[in-house]
Design goal:
It is built from 22 helices and 13 strands. The chain is of the alpha/beta class and 572 residues long. Strand 7 and strand 8 form a beta hairpin.
């Protein structure tokens, strides 16, 4: 599809008596939602003002001059759009041969060759259990990491841990007081979280405790060995638990440099901003004005201490020098939109324009429970370890109720339970707030991960019953043009869109585009299989051709789920 789009863009450009960038045309070619309007459409409205003609007349002029590629059956003008219809016979053969030839590499490209892209994601605050709120960030970041890697970019995954700040002065004091009442080796993060909640409540009642906490953090910043060792212990036990979860989710990180890493790098940032004359005093604090539509960005508080923004600015400077990135993508909740707007605006005083323009904030909506907003203080937070275990156990019950004799039930239950959770967070637009419902997430019908996984397992069953092995097939010996009915063509056309879907998902930082596509593939496949006999067809050429189509569908679904971080069980 992408190759044909490029050919169309070049052909349209040659038909327009106007100097217009080929890329501008390519970006405007779209796939109509209504299949009656063709396989591709080019809107001519952007040319109306330039050519001083109506979009309909412009479209008709282009149609009269255009030299159609043999793979295009016809072109029609509808309300200022040029609608292109693909030659079905050509797309059948070219698409299926391409998928079968590339297999697990179908969807890969080398467009990002030699280009560095940073994806900063997950980034939990240490000494706290991994909860549902962290989960959306982690699976979204992992999917974007995989999308850009699929496109050939050199992707650097960074876990910017929340491992610094005055809260550690408070936690240190709580740990000193209460550690003997707990078994730190059993559920370490839950213990540290309980201690923090307990000391926080005590500090509200006794103000002197907060003074002690401030002094603890001051000593920590000054390099007190005893306190640094204790802080390092908190960090180590946190990472041990987080990495266990990351392994389950398949997350990839090349760096765990968190806030503490930039502790000795902020002074340079302050010095640069000061020398450039943009660091000004405001109510005792040092700030950088970032425009009339935003409050100033605080770099130093009135007491001289740094804040998140200072550390983020130091990180930008460090990453530009270390990674020479084209894009640096930050994944956080929508609550931090203003923070990153301010930081990105200040960054222009620290790094070259190419780096500043490559800073991207990908915001995502909040997760709510059916009972309301999650709150640690209210005690209604779902910890991800508990959630994963519950999802796996519920999956096991559902599977065994459908197939009591399934092999390796523990592995399959794990694949389905975790896959269901991941897909649930990647099927909706990232900006939307979500209400979490585990029972809905684990449904085997509807728009869920288990439904897509079941489609893949069903395909395996079909191919096994057909005794079909792609290694024994000489694809050039099979007449694929026999695949010419409505359901077959519809399925082949959507399989051909996989490259486009991957690119669009990456460009828009939106894995839900890929997720929704996989739902559509599974739905269209089900329609095809209900209408077109595969196992009982007598014509051996038609049977092999349909088996190749079924096999190609499996490749697309499996490759797509792998990008999202989801495994496909062989049987369900």
């Amino acid at each position: 599809m992408e190759e044909l789009k490029e050919i169309l863009a070049k052909t349209i450009k040659e038909s327009i008596e106007l100097e217009i960038d080929y890329k501008e045309i390519l970006d405007k070619i779209e796939v109509p939602k209504d299949k009656k309007n063709g396989d591709f459409a080019y809107p001519c409205f952007n040319l109306a003002k330039i050519l001083k003609k109506s979009p309909i007349n412009i479209a008709n002029d282009i149609k009269a001059k255009i030299n159609l590629d043999s793979r295009i059956d016809k072109v029609e003008v509808v309300n200022g759009f040029l609608n292109f219809y693909i030659n079905s016979k050509d797309i059948v053969t070219s698409t299926l041969k391409k998928i079968v030839e590339k297999k697990q590499d179908y969807g890969k490209s080398n467009e990002g060759n030699g280009i560095n892209i940073i994806v900063e994601y997950s980034s939990p605050n240490i000494a706290k259990p991994f909860h549902l709120g962290h989960f959306r960030n982690t699976v979204l970041g992992k999917a974007l990491y995989n999308l850009y890697e699929k496109l050939g970019y050199n992707v650097i995954g960074i876990n910017h841990l929340g491992d610094w700040g005055r809260q550690f002065g408070l936690l240190i004091e709580g740990y000193r007081r209460f550690k003997n009442e707990y078994d730190i080796n059993k559920d370490s993060l839950k213990v540290l979280s309980d201690i923090y909640v307990r000391i926080s409540k005590l500090a509200k009642e006794d103000k002197s405790i907060m003074d002690i906490a401030r002094d603890n953090f001051k000593r920590l910043e000054q390099g007190d060995k005893e306190l640094l060792d204790l802080w390092q212990f908190f960090r180590d036990v946190s990472l041990k638990e987080y990495n266990r979860i990351y392994k389950i989710l398949g997350s990839k990180f090349d760096s765990y440099n968190g806030e503490a890493f930039y502790n000795d790098k902020m002074e340079e940032v302050i010095d640069i901003l000061d020398k450039k004359g943009v660091l000004v005093e405001s109510q005792g604090a040092k700030v950088v004005n970032v425009g009339d539509d935003m409050p100033p960005c605080i770099v130093l508080k009135s007491n001289g201490s740094t804040i998140y923004a200072t550390r983020d600015l130091a990180a930008i400077l460090y990453r530009a020098r270390t990674y020479d990135f084209t894009k640096c993508i930050y994944i956080t909740a929508t609550e931090q939109i203003l923070h990153f707007k301010q930081v990105f605006e200040v960054a222009k005083y620290l790094v070259d324009e190419k780096y500043q323009k490559g800073l991207v904030h990908v915001a995502y909506g909040m997760i709510r429970l059916k009972t309301g907003k999650m709150s640690t203080r209210e005690g209604n937070v779902i910890y991800i370890n508990d959630l994963i275990n519950e999802a796996i156990e519920k999956s096991k019950k559902i599977i065994t109720s459908k197939n009591a004799n399934i092999e390796d039930i523990d592995t399959v239950s794990k694949q389905i339970g975790i896959g269901a959770l991941i897909f649930n967070y990647l099927k909706s637009n990232k900006n939307k707030d979500m209400i979490f419902d585990l029972d809905e997430t684990l449904r085997f019908d509807g728009e869920t991960g288990p439904y897509i996984q079941y489609t893949c397992a069903r395909i395996n069953s079909i191919l096994n019953k057909a005794d079909f092995n792609i290694e024994n097939i000489v694809i050039n010996s099979i007449d694929l043009s026999v695949l010419n009915n409505k359901q077959e063509i519809e399925l082949i056309k959507i399989l051909d869109k996989f490259d486009d879907v991957i690119k669009k998902s990456a460009i828009e930082y939106e894995p839900s585009i890929l997720s929704r596509y996989l739902i559509e593939v599974a739905t269209i496949f089900s329609r095809f299989y209900n209408e077109c006999s595969v196992l009982s067809v007598e014509d051996i050429n038609l049977k092999n051709a349909r088996c190749i189509l079924v096999y190609a569908t499996k490749i697309v679904i499996k490759n797509g789920l792998e990008i999202l971080g989801i495994e496909c069980p062989e049987k369900m």
